[in-house]
Amino acid sequence: MLFNSYLFIFLFLPLSLLGYFGLNHMGKPKAALVFLTGMSLWFCGFGSLSYLVILLFSILVNYGIVALMNRTKNRGARKLCLLGGIFVNIGILFYFKYYDFFIENLNSALKTGFPLLHLALPLGISFYTFQQLSYVIDSYKGECARYSFLEYAAYASFFPKLIQGPITGHRELILQLRDDTRKKPDFVNLSQGLYAFSLGLAKKVLLADTLSRPVSLGYANIGELNSVSSLTVMICYSLQIYFDFSGYCDMACGMALMMNLRLPLNFNSPYRAQSVSDFWDRWHMTLTKFFTKYIYFPLGGSRCGKIKTCRNVMIVFLLSGLWHGANWTFVLWGAMHGLVSVFEKMGNIRSWKAPKALKVGLTFLFVTFAWSLFRAGSFAEASALWHRLLFAGPGPLYPPITDCFRDLVEASFLYRAGLGGLMNRFPWMIPALFIGAALLSCFLMKNTQEKMEKMEFSAGKCIAAAVLLVWSVLSLSEISEFIYFNF
Questions:
Q1: Is 16 in contact with 37 (CB distance < 8 Å)?
Q2: Do the beta carbons of residue 158 and residue 39 sit within 8 Å?
Q3: pLDDT at 179 over 80
Q4: Residue 485: pLDDT above 70?
Q5: Strands (DSSP E) along 101-188, which ranges?
Q6: Start-to-end CA span in the chain (Å)
Q7: Which of 32, 56, 129, 252 would bridge with 24, disulfide CB 3.0–4.6 Å?
Q8: What is the mean pLDDT of residues 43-52?
Q9: In angstroms, rounded to a whole number, what is the distance separating the alpha carbons of residues 211 and 226?
Q10: Active-site residues: which are they?
C-alpha cells in the first residue's frame, strides 16, 4: 500500500485515526495500541504476505533477544545476546538484499557458477532492521527502558515510518505512545499534520512524478543527448529524488502528528548546504545519526588523529553507499561523498572565505553529479552520461524531454491563456520554468518543518493546503512507487 493511493488516503488513514482515537476515548489504551499495530501490519502485508511474515519474525526475534539479555547480568551472556542480535539482523538484511550481489561478484571473480536467488526485497527492511539494531545495541549498553511486547511491536511496525523512515529510535516513539496526554485528538496537531501531509503529497505527485518522466527518458536514450540535455536530466533527477524522499517524510511526519506523535526531522533544506559535510547534516539526517552513533563513534570518531578520522569517515560513507543498494555504483557514490568529506575535513573547508552562494552552488553541482551515478544501473551507463555531458556539445533540449513537460495538464492552461504561440516558438520555456521554480523552492523557500514551527492558521493557509491536497489527488492518474522503496 502506498501513501499516494486512493485506498490509503480515503480508507486506511481515516480508519486508522478514527480507530486509534476512538478506542482511547473509550478508555481502552491497550486496545488502541493493538488496533494501531494491527493497522500497521495490514499496511506492511497488503502487497505481499511474505513481507508481513519477515517483519513479524524480526520483531519477535529482536524482542526475544533483548528479553534474554535483560534476564542476566553476566557480561559474557549479555555480549553473546548482543552478537546474536547483530548476526540475526545483518544476516536477514544480507540474505534478502545482498546475497545475489555477493554471489554474482564471487562467480565473476572465481569463475564459479553458484545460482542466484532473485529474491524480492522486503518492504522497508533496510529501515526497520536499523531501528531494531539500535534497540538491541542500546539494551546491551543499558540505555533502553523495559518495554512491553505490545509497545515494542507498535514502535517497530508503526506504519508512517515503517518503509522509508525516518529511522526512529525506540525512546523517541515509545515514550510518546505511553503519554496519556497524547491520546485525545488535538486540533492544532491534526491541522498541522494534514498541512504537512498535503505538502508532502504535492511534492511527490506534482513535482517528483513529473520530473521522473524526463529522467527515465534521458537514461533510456543517453546516446541521443547533447550536453544541455544531459545536464537537464541530471538536475531533474537531483530534484526528483529530493522531492520524492522528503515528500514521503513530510507525509510520514504529518500522519504521526495527526496522532499527536512527533517523528524526528529527516530533512533540513539539504540543497542549501555549503559543503558536502553540511549536506549530510541536512539530508536523511536520521541515517547520518545512526551511522554516527553506531559506527563512527565506536571506531573512534574524530578523537584519534586526522588519519584515523579520515579512515572512519570513509568507512561510514562506504557503508552508507552499500546500505542504499547492492550495486558497485552505490559503493562508488558513497566513496565520492566520503573522499570530498575527507578533503573538507583536511582543508577545514567550513572556514573557507567565499560567498555563500558560491559554496551552495558548488555543493549542489557535486551532489547532482554524484546523483547521476546513484541513478545509473551500471558504471557504463553513468560514464556514458558523463561523456555526453562533457563532449556532446550544446544544442536544443532533447524533444521527448520537452514533450514530457508540454503534455502536463497544467501546461494546457497556458495554451488556453493565449501563450501557445510563444511556447511553440520557445519549446524549452516550460521545462525551464518548471525546473527553475523547483530549484528556487529548494534554495529559497522555507521547508515544511520551518513552516510548521511558525505556522499561524489563516484562511489562506487552509485554502492553500486544501488546493494542494485536491490537486494532488486529482493528479493520481498513475500510482508510482517512492524511490527509497528500493533501498
A1: no
A2: no
A3: yes
A4: no
A5: none
A6: 17
A7: 32
A8: 91
A9: 19
A10: 324
